[in-house]
## 1
Amino acid sequence: MASPGSNPWIDRKISAPTLLIWGEQDFALGKELTYGMEGLFTGPFEIKYIADSSHWVQNEKPELVNQYVRDFLDGR
């Protein structure tokens, strides 16, 4: 039973393995938004910061993003 004032959807943690890829120069969503996220996950959680890239990191550094995704999916 949920405690008063709690929301079972908001209080849930992510159990799926998660990879977060973030451009270090993202001015729309600053890097500081990622600080302390570990507590939101019960499953494996990994953050990859990519230098010299902004909000559109997948367009600016596609080779590196693809490598991180491949490594993550391969369990490395």
## 2
Amino acid sequence: MPDSQTIVDQGSIAYPFTGTASGGSGESGGGQPAPQVPDSAKTLGILAFAAMVSTLGLTYVFMKYGGDYGVE
């Protein structure tokens, strides 16, 4: 079969292969653009990450230094 008739399986959708194997056709792009993430979502992700890291840090400190203070 010629390359233009070859079917490339991508998940559950089959696309006809129309390019070359090396991709040297000179065209730029052709795919879908990457999804944009809003700034508020980025800020929320950073804050959530900082909360998880601080929780792990506090857990380490309490496990290492917390505990029995000689109270009877």
